[in-house]
Amino acid sequence: MNNGADAIQVFADLNLLKNTAMQWDQNKRLMLAERGGKKIEGFDLGNSPLSVTKETVYGKRLFMSTTNGTKSLQKVQNVEYLFAMALPNRKAVAERIMSLNQKNVLILGSGWEGSYSLEDSLAAGALASYIEENYSSEVNIANDELQASLALWKFWENDILKCLKTATHGKRLTRLGNYEEDFKCCSELDCLDIVPSQFERGVIRAS
């Protein structure tokens, strides 16, 4: 979205993705899908952040399915406010959340095939840390899971790249090929002001 994509429409089911995408002008769509870190044959892109260049995505709708993330987004698509966060847009999302003055906020990490994910907990801790440091009088950490994520962030905040490579998913990507630049991109902090927001069910746009 930072490079001008019109929207990202998320899918858990690959066949539904294909059928929906085929209803769009082929010059205004891209299909992105990966499983286990590998791009699926027949799709335009996987989920490398380096592949979604301005030249590739500008003005297009991205129909996307990933191993974990898009499934998680679909599970919570009925909430009033839904934002997608990674480390690069942490500050922007945190400030949007606090501007809404909501009583309860759920931070949902997508995990790995139903199991724990180190990098998702790191991101949750990073978000909570920013909010706690900048809005300390307005927030309360409600459970031990987020307390643990905060502790994880405090441990790794000065070497995010190492944490991503230590995680089992990071090791999985390393076995698949040279993802060094992807790791560096994903470890950048507070460098984007994009807030990906759900505008209609399953459709996310920049706000």
Straight-line distance between termini: 10 Å
CATH level-two architecture of the largest domain: Alpha-Beta Complex
Rounded average pLDDT: 95
Task: Give a short account of the largest sheet.
Answer: 6 strands, mixed
Low-confidence stretches: none
CATH homologous superfamily of the largest domain?
Answer: ComB-like
State the helicity in percent bands. Answer: 25-40%
Helical segment count: 9
Name the beta content range: 5-15%
* Secondary-structure-derived class: alpha/beta
Overall tally of structural domains: 2
H/E series: EHEEHEHHHHHHHEE
Assign the CATH topology of the largest domain: putative 2-phosphosulfolactate phosphatase
Strand tally is 6
Task: Describe the model.
The radius of gyration is 17 Å and the shape is globular. It is α/β, with parallel strands linked by helices and 207 residues long. The model has no long low-confidence stretch (mean pLDDT 95). The protein has helices at 14-21, 54-57, 69-75, 90-99, 118-134, 144-156, 160-166, 168-176, 180-186; strands spanning 7-10, 29-35, 38-39, 61-65, 196-200, 203-206. The protein has a 6-stranded mixed β-sheet. The protein folds into 2 domains: 7-67, no CATH class; 82-193, ComB-like (putative 2-phosphosulfolactate phosphatase), CATH 3.90.1560. The longest helix has 17 residues, at 118-134.
